[in-house]
Amino acid sequence: MIESVTLNNGVEMPLEGFGVFQVPDPAQCEQAVLDAIESGYRLIDTAAAYMNETAVGAAIKKCSVPREQLFITTKLWVQDSSYEGAKKAIQTSLDNLGLDYLDLYLIHQPMGDYIGAYRAMEEAYREGKIRAIGVCNFYPARLADFCETVEVKPAVNQVELHPFFQQENALALMKEYGVHPEAWGPFAEGNHGIFTHPVLKKIGDKYGKSPAQVALRWNVQRGVTVIPKSVHKERMEQNLNIWDFKLSQEDMDEIAKMDLGHSEIVNHDDPAFAKMLHNMKIHN
C-alpha cells in the first residue's frame, strides 16, 4: 500500500508516483500510464514540456480507476512564465489532459516572470481548477525569497534528489516553510552505477531488495515523494515494491556517505542553461 503525505493545504498526495519524462511517443506513453495505473500507481507526473499530456489524458480516460482516485500533476513551461501566459497554459494543459481540474500544478523552472505566473496559478487554485500549486528546481535562496513573496505558499518543490545529491539543506528549508519535497531523477538518471552500486546492493541483500528499491525507499523514508519512470511493466511493479520493508538508521547513515554534494545532471547556475531553457519553445 503506497503511503501518502498531507500537503500544507490538507490535500493528500502519494509518496510514490509514476513519471513520464522522455516518453514522447503517444502510443508508448499511453500504454505506460495504463500499465502504471494497473500496477497500482495513482500519482502521474507529466509536464507541458514533455509533449505527452494528450497521451496521459487518453490513458486516464481509458483506465478503470475513477478520476478522483488519481493524482495528476503537470507543469508550466518557461515560455509561458508570465501572468497571461500561465492563465492560457493552465487551460491548455487541462484541455490536453481532458480534465476539469488538476491535482498539482508546478512552475517547471525558476525562469522568466514566475511571480506573475504564480499569481495566475493562485487564482486557478482559488477557483478550484487546481487542488495544489507549487514549484520545481527552486534552490534554497530562491525558495526562501519565493515563499516570502507569494500569498499561497507552494505545496511542493520538485527537485533532483537521489543518493548522490541528497540536498539535506534544501530539505531542512522546505520543512521550515511547510513545502513538501518531491524527487525528480530518483535514480540519478542511471549514473554512478546506481542499479548495481555496492553500498545499495549490500543493504538491499539484507532485505531481498534491489539497489533501485533501496534508493527509492531511502528517499521516501526521508519524507520525499518519488516518481520513478519506466516503460516496462515488470520494472514499474518492482519500483512499487518498496512498502514492505524499512531501512535501519545504520542503512540510512551508510547511504548518507554517498552524497557528492552537487548535481552531475544539470547546473541551474549556468547562464548557458538558462538561455537554453528560454529558447526551448513548446508552441508557436
* Annotated CATH topology: TIM Barrel
CATH top level is Alpha Beta
Strand order of the largest sheet: 3-4-5-6-7-8-9-10
Could you describe the largest sheet, including whether it forms a barrel? 8 strands, parallel
Give the N-to-C terminal Cα separation: 43 Å
**Tally of individual domains:** 1
Describe the protein's architecture and organization.
Strand 4, helix 2 and strand 5 (71-76) form a beta-alpha-beta unit. The chain has 11 helices and 10 strands. The chain has helices at 26-39, 53-62, 83-97, 114-126, 140-149, 168-177, 198-207, 211-221, 233-240, 249-256, 271-279, and strands at 4-6, 12-14, 18-19, 43-45, 71-76, 104-107, 133-136, 156-160, 180-184, 225-226. The mean pLDDT is 97. By secondary structure, the chain is of the alpha/beta class. Helix 2 (53-62) runs parallel beside helix 3 (83-97) and helix 5 runs parallel beside helix 6. It is 42% helix and 13% strand. The protein has a single domain, classed as Alpha-Beta Barrel (TIM Barrel), CATH 3.20.20. Strands 3-4-5-6-7-8-9-10 form an 8-stranded parallel sheet. A two-stranded antiparallel ribbon has the order 1-2.
